[in-house]
Amino acid sequence: MDSLKFLLYTLARIGLLIAVTAFAVLVGNVIYPVIVSLLPEGSARDTLMNETLRSVVSFVIILAFLVPLFFDDGKKHAAYEIWSSVNITLTLIFMVMVCFVPSIFRDSFEQGGKASVFYEYAYFPYLWLQKAAGLDFVVSTLVGLGLIAGGAYGIYLLSYKRYAKQHPVILGGQKRGGVQTVEEEDEGTEDVNLLEE
Fold first, then answer.
1. What long-range pairs does 186-193 form, CB within 8 A, spacing at least 24?
2. For residue 73, is it within any domain?
3. Are 14 and 94 in contact (CB under 8 A)?
4. Angle at 31 between CA 26 and CA 33, to 5 degrees
5. How far apart are CA 123 and CA 134, in angstroms?
6. Domain coverage including residue 46
7. E strand spans, 33-181
8. Among 8, 18, 57, 171, which has the minimal tally of Cβ within 10 Å of its Cβ?
9. Is the separation of the CB atoms in 100 and 145 below 8 Å?
10. What is the pLDDT of residue 121?
11. Residue 170: its pLDDT value, please?
12. HEC profile for 45-79?
């Protein structure tokens, strides 16, 4: 993958993460509560309306979008032989940093202002880590993004290796250190007449 394609690929994945996060926040804070409100009143409804559970729903939605996407990326990069562990690692690092860095400056804004509302919603998918694990806002954001990036990286490698195993000829796997076949070994040797002195 050349520099321009890598840049475009990285920017596209960063933009997608931001868009998916916005959609996940919309579902967790608007759509999901509306659906749950249709249920009969009771303990089950109150439990489903819990803020921590809604945050988990938002987090799962992000994974549900990104995991299949990176699985497909791994397969395509293997097919076109443009796979690079360095490139995919850098892409995921940039994705994490773009979303994580703003969280560092949350406390520098006045509480109750517009900025506070932004942080409350933008980082809602990671609220469950604060509630369940007792993590700080910044730490929970980093851990949440790290889990997403780790899952994306793992599924990307799994997809690549799976495709490489299914298509060794296309990837030239046997000619790049693979086991030689009997025919290949025979081509590199000459017949020797053992009866000649």
1. none
2. yes
3. yes
4. 110
5. 15
6. 3-172
7. none
8. 8
9. yes
10. 92
11. 53
12. HHHHCCHHHHHHHHHHHHHHHHHHHHHHHHHHHHH
Rg (CA), the chain: 25
Q: pLDDT band at residue 78, thresholds of 50, 70 and 90? A: confident
Residue 124: name the closest of 23, 28, 13 by CA. Answer: 28
Domain annotation covers residue 118: yes
What's the CA angle centered on 156, arms 154 and 161, to 5 degrees? 95
Total domains in the chain come to 1
Token couple for 127: 């609220």
Q: Determine which helix (DSSP H) or strand (DSSP E) holds 114, and give its type and residue range.
A: helix 114-122
| Count of positions (residues) in the chain | 197
* Digit-coded pLDDT (tens) for 44-68: 888 889 999 999 999 999 999 999 9
Q: What is the DSSP string of 106-160?
A: GGGSPTTSHHHHHHHHHTGGGHHHHHHH---HHHHHHHHHHHHHHHHHHHHHHHH
189 inside domain: no
Q: What is the dihedral of CA 180, 183, 189, 192, to 10 degrees?
A: 140
Q: Which amino acid is at 82?
A: I
